Amino acid sequence: xxxxxxxxxxxxxxxxxxxxxxxxxxxxxxxxxxxxxxxxxxxxxxxxxxxxxxxxxxxxxxxxxxxxxxxxxxxxxxxxxxxxxxxxxxxxxxxxxxxxxxxxxxxxxxxxxxxxxxxxxxxxxxxxxxxxxxxxxxxxxxxxxxxxxxxxxxxxxxxxxxxxxxxxxxxxxxxxxxxxxxxxxxxxxxxxxxxxxxxxxxxxxxxxxxxxxxxxxxxxxxxxxxxxxxxxxxxxxxxxxxxxxxxx
Length: 248
Hints:
Blueprint: H1 8-12, E1 14-23, E2 29-38, H2 49-52, H3 58-78, E3 88-93, H4 94-97, H5 102-112, E4 120-125, H6 133-145, E5 149-155, H7 162-166, E6 172-175, H8 177-182, H9 185-200, E7 204-207, H10 213-221, E8 226-227, H11 238-247
Parallel strand pairs: 2-3, 3-4, 4-5, 5-6, 6-7, 7-8
Antiparallel strand pairs: 1-2, 1-8
Helix pairs in contact: 3-5
């Protein structure tokens, strides 16, 4: 049944890693994106499909989201990330965001971990179009007013309701890695257009999947403000992230 909770074994297998997001102007760390994977019985980490494939309903998405945030905040305290004023960005499906009670749960976890809302960001993802844009706008505005930063994730030219979503009170947009890897004339024009619109709205623009210095320079020349990808760092386990933070 699609509304039954995820298997407890799946929840137990969730593992957290962190990918740095840097300012393209100077290469300094801005925040990290929290990435969730599942571990096979032999310890091998599975691809993101194992998590995404389990989010077959808003109920399942909420339970998995709660598990991911709870594990992350446990590591945040255990590894002393607060000493680095580390900001965390969590993926949040738009349909899960509309689920009653999710934000109260997140608030309770954050407060218990001693984190201010300004240290927590949400990257809003969409695998099914959200038709109730008015409800989404209300929740996004409430999150912003509570101090959370919000980004619209995986932006592409064919994203449903893109123009309407961009008008919502978000602080950043994230360009899908497919745009960065292809850099076709159409992709370049779209990137420049998105960056210009974001600048007018005082929003940051984050390019995903930067793997080469040439891609980095193209993004910088297109007025993209932040970058994420293997050029800067692969996803890091908490222990490796602590080393990274101490070195930077």
